[in-house]
Amino acid sequence: MKKPCDLGYRMPAEWSKHSATQLHWPSNIETWPGNRLKKVEEVYLDIIVPLHQYEPIILLHDLRLPENYLIEKLISRSVNLQDVTIQSLPINDVWARDCGPIFIQLQNESSKKVAITDWEYNAWGGKYPPYDSDNALPKWFSNHYDLPYFKTGMVLEGGSIETNGEGILLTTESVLLNPNRNPHLTKSQIEQMLFDYLGAEKIIWLKKGLAGDDTDGHIDDLSRFLNKNTILTMVTEDESDVNFSALQENLEILENAENQYGEPFQIVTLPLPQTRIVDQTVDGSQFVPASYANFYIANGVVLVPLYDERYDEIALDLFREFFPDRDIIGIDCTDLVWGQGSIHCITQQLYGLTHFDH
To answer: Mind listing the pLDDT tens digit for each residue in 344-356?
Structure first.
């Protein structure tokens, strides 16, 4: 059977036009214990209110949550329900980026036909079972929207890879080479899978991620493309910061990196916000992966997580500079990141959808 790359498919950049955004309404009380669930629901509404004005939302919710509850929440914030498709499905948690379908597009046709790649999802090395319902979602999207489908058999989360849509992928060794993902595969075999199924031509490997990141170090908290030639990476000037060394090492790798044509990238930096918290997360960490790199590019808008009044406006100004044709909206994600993820982690861009259920 031919691989997607043989057919001319490639993973598009996030700034390419979406059909919709996938979101999962929060309901897992192990991720959001006590009053934290209500707090994170409000952050979700803060995200949905602006996002649905720019593109449709496919909002999944667990079967145990009454749909009327969700509808009342949306109506309370004046959300236009015509722009939100609510789907009742078995889901385990909110991390749509990691378990949702990763789309690829045909590069040699003006129609830009799309397909879904289905990678295995094991909740970051089996940390948070059960995860079987979330792992089944790419196949559900393929069936429901009648989209071509490639099953890979390899564990890979969407938050662990970043692309410029031109054949360059960023990732981290701490995730993709972690024995809790694919212990039977070598680095070169993993690279070949990314070449075969995502149309990558070159992989840039960073090292480690942020303290408190229970994914083992996803790239979308570290370094992201702002355009095909520009990479944003997080830094801190505080040498006593727990993340100083890892971020410095990643910066040096990027400053020496080249694309597949031997050309360097423009590297821009933002200061890391405060990541130490006063209590601890559900897995006992005193740190959360708070990062401005966890932004989401949607049609006509960039949603930027905010955490730290020392740096929030600096971050917003940078996004205004690099996305002059998109609105820039900052959202306080302090309560969201306590669950160890932020805006990019809970969203997944969708392509090629031709119908929406209402």
So the answer is: 999 999 999 987 8
